[in-house]
Amino acid sequence: MFSLRPHKLLISVVIIFLSSVLLTSCGQSAGRTPTPEPTLEPRMPAATPVKTDESWLVLSNLPEDATQIEKGAEIWRLVCQDCHGDEGQGLTEDWIAKWAPADQNCWQAKCHAANHPPEGFVLPRYVPPLVGATALARFETASDLQAYMRDKMPWHKPGSLQDGEYWELTAFLLSKNGISPLPPELDAQQGAEILLHQGQ
């Protein structure tokens, strides 16, 4: 009789486990909203990606003679838009509402919440606008903006773009914010001379 008890215990554990799995899946399929994850301080990826000699971006939608601003616009679409908005407005409720319904809760479990997959990351709840009257207020020059993006962005792979790609993004953002005239090819020397605020 004693030899049967461990088997009965094992069977009971298996039944309890399967019951909990079935209840969870039934709740999800019935359209119940999962319990929201607690708001946590965002965590950056464990290690900064190593920059390679070649870009990981493919700008296939551009003509060969694309301008620096046009390249920056395409990089924005591919890399920055999801978080900062299609018009640079930031991660607003209106922008999130344009996504597919299944994608509108980035912070759900096993997505961009604290329990994200190993290759993932925690998405901040607030992503600032980069286009607007005060959007670039903390940066004095175009070089300051480029240096910040180069060191901190994109959020999931900071520093992983090529230096020239960060200049292309900078030119695009300056253009979107009405800062002109801009040189045909913005670089470090010219960027240091372009002030981002009126009266400077």
Strand element count? 0
Return the CATH class of the domain at 68-200.
Mainly Alpha
CATH homologous superfamily of the domain at 68-200? Answer: Cytochrome c-like domain
Rough outline: globular
Residue-averaged pLDDT: 76
Which structural class best describes the helix and strand composition? mainly alpha
Going by CATH, the architecture of the domain at 68-200 would be Orthogonal Bundle
Rg measurement, Å: 24 Å
With helices defined by DSSP (H or I, 4 residues minimum), what is the helix count? 6
Largest sheet: none
Strand content of the residues, in percent? under 5%
Features:
200 residues, mainly alpha, Cytochrome Bc1 Complex, Chain D, domain 2, 38% helix, globular
Summarize the structure.
The chain has helices spanning about 5-30, 70-85, 95, 140-150, 165-175, 190.
Secondary structure elements and pairings:
Elements: H1 5-29, H2 68-84, H3 93-96, H4 142-152, H5 163-176, H6 188-191
Helix pairs in contact: 2-5, 4-5
What report would you give on this structure?
- The protein has 200 residues and is an all-alpha fold.
- The protein has a domain of 133 residues: Cytochrome Bc1 Complex, Chain D, domain 2, CATH 1.10.760.10.
- Helices cover 38% and strands 0% of the residues.
- It is built from six helices and no strands.
- Helix 2 packs across helix 5 and helix 4 packs across helix 5.
- It is globular.
- About 20% of the residues have low confidence.
